[in-house]
Structure formats: structure tokens, C-alpha cells
Amino acid sequence: METVETDVLVVGSGPAGAATALALSTYGVPNVMVTRYGSLADTPRAHITNQRTMEVLRDLGVEDQVTAQATPQPLMGNTVFCTSLAGEELGRLRSWGNDPLVQAAHELASPSRMCDMPQHLMEPVLVNAAVSRGTALRFHTEYLSHEQSDDGVTALVEDRLRGDTYRVRARYLVGADGGRSRVVENAGLPTVGRMGVAGSLNIVFEADLTHLTAHRPSTLYWVLAPGATVGGIGAGLVRCVRPWTEWMVVWGYDLEAGPPDLTEEFARSVVHRLLGDDTIPVRITSTSAWTVNHLYAETYADRRVLCAGDAVHRHPPSNGLGSNTSIQDAYNLAWKLKLVLDGTAAPALLDTYSAERAPVGRQIVERANRSIGETAPVFEALGVLATSDTEQMWRNVDARKAATPEGAKQRQGLREAIAAKVYEFNAHGVEMNQRYVSDAIVPDGTPDPGFGRDPELYHQPSTRPGAKLPHAWVVRGRERLSTLDLGGHGRFTLFTGIGGDCWEEAAGAARKALGIELVTVSIGPGREYEDPYGDWARLREIGDCGALLTRPDNHIGFRHPEMSPHAGELLIGALRKILGHG
Ligand code: FDA
């Protein structure tokens, strides 16, 4: 049987696999990506692309391509709650960074803007860039099984066009094969939770809905009508794919009864029900049934097999975390694979992948599932859960218009229930506050300051080891750069300032001793980079002459508040620990 050799075999070309291949190829690591089907995602699927993901894509050099195709943040902004698109509006929530107060936080947190990039547009950007940088992509190729030895993994794959099988021999295998991951199953990774919590239908369609949507631009229009609570994501949803002519409806079905027959007639009837106007011409382009899952893997790796994306965290689309977390998994993993493969780091560095990402996966699975439950109070406030009689339900919805104390109470209850959905539609902290604790983070002995405000809603920058490098605009001559642009690029970066010469010397010694790529960045008047707004000085939490070491994924690995006569020893010791040597 034929055997193909590579350094990393990536199974799956969804956001997790494509981003892994892209990062690996960007870092010069030979890789083969196999995918079972003959095409990339052919339906919109995941779409909300948060700031942290955009930062990752910026570092991987594809941010501009994504921004060029995505629906921009201002058009994502009003989550609308209504009885149908043409029917009564029940309320709106400023979402996805479009509340003026949150807008400022987004502006301050990152050089990158959130956007709406449907998966069928995102995957080609990632995959084209990966292939153009060296990834060998094989469509129609299904992973079947694998075996591990001390120095590699041999996977058996099937060429579905030819109908024969061959082996791929790799040093590592990345299982990014989605929510029904065979790699996870074969690797025996322990999981918590369950699949199939509720049933949902996706109906993709074309219709010109400009007259119903352009005056209240949004990515999501929630239809809270009697019957909308059946299964699925907690309500009927009309989601914008391309403003304002391409759409997707998400509608629940009863899991016990099984998915309905997805005929065109059925699909059109659901769409028209949510639009509230049967006269609108609708062209159905695809339908599919899926289940809401509530499951995460406790560990993401079994020796040389490492898993990412939906393979290890399976949850509903609430909060829009699916592809975001998948791309971020890839970014965490790729630099570690590179350094282990080129011998710079010990294999122990790869253990930190699971240690750092599994807690994030667990958190987002819990958050996304909780968000579904948090829709119930909106239905409660409308009175549609209080009766099974549909006519009574509509009377209850109407009761909020009454000039009575009960009416006022209902109006207030509805406002509060909609406002509480901020945890789904404006959870900046969930998106940006990831802090790692692992052997690839060197604690600096400072106590965890915790969070001043709700960590799910508010981003709190920090330079405490484990946190992501805070964004600040600095300048070099006429050029404006984010601190995040100075780090990343697959290498370590040491940030210091005036009086930090000992750290620059230490970096030189570390480069020599460890053979790593480590750049130094000095920020201050008369240095290569200046901090004209004083933003960096406010955020860095160290003195001018202190040091911050960022890893290739722009997370802080080590910091020291001031100059030190032992700078070389401290920095080399920290890097050795991060690299798994000590
Ligand atoms: P993803 O499922 O995207 O990719 C898996 C990849 O593995 C695919 O390329 C597949 O071909 C490949 N593969 C699987 N088994 C293989 C094998 N044995 N051998 C080789 N290749 C194999 N999210 C959201 O936020 N909003 C939404 O509306 C939706 N809607 C939605 C609809 C449908 C139909 C699906 C399947 C998923 C969604 N999602 C979603 C979820 C979202 O798409 C998901 O979170 C991300 O795509 C996860 O990215 P991954 O790369 O991990 O898996």
C-alpha cells in the first residue's frame, strides 16, 4: 500500500483544519490536509467573527481578505426581537460591539474589527492561503483510522474518488474533523456532556428583504412567536447571510419525532411564517437538519494526536463561538508543533495545548448552552409559556400594550429580559479574556487580580503571564502599528523600553543559547517605537526598563517589572520552561 510522508497530517478543512494548515504553512511546516468531501463548506454555517479571531487572521496575513468580503460590524448591530419580520417588533438589543459604550471598548481593545464572515466565504480564504503557502490539500479523502508509534502517527485514509486506501505517515496528526469526529473517537479522548440536546433546521434562501431589514440592520432577527420554542436554539431565527438578499432561517424540531421531511414546500412555509408575509418571493437554496450539542473533551490530545475545533467542543451557535474558538485552537497549536518539530522545543510543549485550550472549550460550551436557556425569560415576559392555547398566547403578547399596572409590569419585564440577552450578543469578555495557565506560562508571583467588572461582558487587558498582549497603537516614524503587530509572526518578542538595555542583551544571549527566533521591541522617546498617546505606558503594568515576553501567539509568557542584573538568566530560564526544557 502506498505511504505518503509529511510532518503534520491535518484531518478536516473546516475553520479548525484550514487555520491549522494555514498557520503551519505560514511557519514553514510541511503539512497535508485531507477532507472527506469534494468541496469546502457549501452553506453559510458559522459567521460571527470576533476581534480575537480577526487578530489571529491579521497575524496570519489574511485579515484584509476577510474584511473585504465580510459584512461590516455596523450592519450587524441591532438584534431584533419580533413576532415576524413583517409583524410587530418587540424590542431590539444593540449587539456585537454596536452599543456606543461597548463600541469604545472594542476600539480600545484591538486593532481589528469584528465582522460577519459566513463560513462558506471564510473557508476559501483560509484554504487558498494555506495552499499557496505550501499545504498539500486532498479533497475526497476520508480519514479512517490511525496508529501511533514513538516517532509518528500512521493514518489510513480512503481516496473516495478512486475507492482505494493509502497511508499517511506523519510526525503528528491534527484531528479537526468536526462535531462527529472519528479522530476523537479513535483516540479515545474523554468527553463530558451529550450530543443531541435539541433539534434544529437550517433553511438557506434568497429573498429581497431590504424593506424589512435595512432600517434596522442586523445579523440576527429573532422571531418569538407561539411554536417558536420547539427544540433547537430557543426561538425562530432569520439570519442575514448577505445584506439584504441572502438569508438563513433556523427553526426547531422535536428530536423525539425526528426531523421533518425537508421538502421545498415545507421549507418555504417555515420561511414565510417567520417573514410574516407570504407574498415575498423566496428561493430556497438548501436545507439541513442538525442537533444542538452540549459536549466538550476534557483533554485534546493523545500523544501525537491533537484535536481542535468542534471535534473537541460541540455547542449551539449562540454567542457565535464555533468557528472563532476553532481558529483560535489552531493558532495556539501551530507554533507549538513548529517548535517541537524543528527541535527547538521539547515534546512537553505540546502538553500545554490541551492545558490551555480545554478550559476555553469547556467555558464556551457552557456559555453557548446557557444562552439558549436565557431566551426563556423573553418568552415568559410575553406570556407565551403560560398557556398552550395559541389564541391566548397572542392575547398575552398584546397585553403589554395595556394602560394598566399589569401592562407596565409586563413591558418592564420584557425590557429586562431582552437586556439580559447581552450575555449572548455583546459578551466582549467571553471573546477576549482568555488567560492561560500551563507550563508554557511563567508565573511572575503576582496575585491574580481577578476582574474588576463582569468577565463575560467586559474585556480587561492585562500583561500578567497567561494573558493576551494588550493592544496599544504605537508609531515608527509615520507608521502606526499595534503592539500585536510587533509580536506574533511565529516568533517570540521581548518588549522593553528606556533603561531596558539589560533585557535587549539578555535576548541576544537567549537567541544564541536556545536557537530561537526572538525579536526585541523597545518603546519610548527616541527608541524605534514611540508611544505618543501614552496608551502602552498605561497598559503594560511594568516599568520603562522592565520586560514582557510574548509567545508566537501573542500571549504573555513571562514578565519582569524592572531591570535586573540577572536578566539573561531570568529570560533564558523562562524560555527554557516555555519550550518544555526545564
Ligand atoms: P467543521 O465541521 O467545520 O469541519 C470539519 C471538517 O472535517 C470538514 O472539512 C469535513 O469535511 C472534515 N471531515 C469530517 N470527517 C472527516 C473524515 N473522517 N475524514 C476527512 N475529513 C473529515 N455555527 C454557527 O455559529 N452558526 C450556525 O448557524 C451554524 N450552522 C451550522 C450548520 C451546519 C450544517 C453545521 C455542520 C455546523 C454549523 N455551525 C454553525 C457550526 C460551525 O460550523 C462549527 O462550529 C465550525 O465549523 C467548527 O469548525 P471545525 O473546523 O471544527 O469543524
TrEMBL record:
Gene3D superfamilies: 3.40.30.120, D-Amino Acid Oxidase, subunit A, domain 2, FAD/NAD(P)-binding domain
Limits of the FAD-binding domain: 5-368
Keywords, alphabetical: FAD, Flavoprotein, Monooxygenase, Oxidoreductase
GO MF term list: FAD binding; oxidoreductase activity, acting on paired donors, with incorporation or reduction of molecular oxygen, NAD(P)H as one donor, and incorporation of one atom of oxygen
Name of the featured protein: 2,4-dichlorophenol 6-monooxygenase
Organism listed in the record: Streptomyces antimycoticus
Lineage: Bacteria, Bacillati, Actinomycetota, Actinomycetes, Kitasatosporales
